[in-house]
Prior knowledge:
Strand content: 15-25%
Number of strands: 10
Oligomer: single chain
Structural class: alpha/beta
CATH topology: Arginase, Chain A
CATH architecture: 3-Layer(aba) Sandwich
Radius of gyration: 17 Å
Number of helices: 9
Distance between the termini: 9 Å
Strand order of the largest sheet: 2-1-5-10-9-6-7-8
Amino acid sequence: MSVALFTHPAALDHDTGEGHPECAERVRYVLRALEAQMFAPLLREVAPPATVEQLRAAHSAEHVDFIMSLPRDRTRYIDGDTLYGPGSLDAALRGAGGACAAVDAVMEGWAKAAFVAMRPPGHHAEANRAMGFCLFNNAAVAAYHARARWGLARVAVVDFDVHHGNGTQDIFGPEPDLFYASSHQYPCYPGTGAAHERGAHGNIVNAPLAPGSGTQAFQAAWSGVIIPALNAFRPELLIISAGFDAHAADPLAQLRLHEADFTWITQALLAVADAHCPGRVVSLLEGGYDLDALAASAAAHVTALMRL
Length: 308
């Protein structure tokens, strides 16, 4: 199966300073893992920058203008843990633009699936706010691009990052033809994602997991809650917010997943895509802060996308 890998060296130029968990090494480790011989069939593509029009479809004009007008002469904090420096804008633009290009790849049919290995991550960025390491919401930008360019009526984003994607929920909540589902540790940053948060049209599905949850609870949440709702939605395109910080080795949370769990969830989501949208899947790198666990988990995920 043809799988496209979108990335760009700009991901390494977003400088978060010494000791910050969302560091350039994250992408270096992922790309190094994907240099193994088994990944030779990947279609390696350059992530282009997103356009202002693409960004403003998901974000307010005020937010886009704020991010793009920040001075780039030094690194500064936007909030307590979200930094912006000389290389941040190009990295963020190419993260969102790579997501849009990945949508085009699977819709044009020359790739069956795509994985975007860029940073900063995106799922905490709300319509009008950057937060949680995130400047633009790459998954939401990709979903709106899929509607605008390809006329899709139903686009789904599913999220197995250990943190709830409050930004995606914020952007999708009022939209009946956009679906967002997340499993995540709860309570945990950012404090959202309770099961009763359903969106204006029942288009939001949250499956919170207690700290210490492992494989059994994770699979039950997806098999019993999220996947049935996703099948009922019948997506025409499936976008994955692929965070790997639910791994047992990750320092920022306390779920107990392993590489095999990321293989399992990827295969389960491919089965949904096969049933509803001829296998079309776009996967976007979100969290994952133990470098070795991140690399191994991302490799397991991409291996499953390749159906090896």
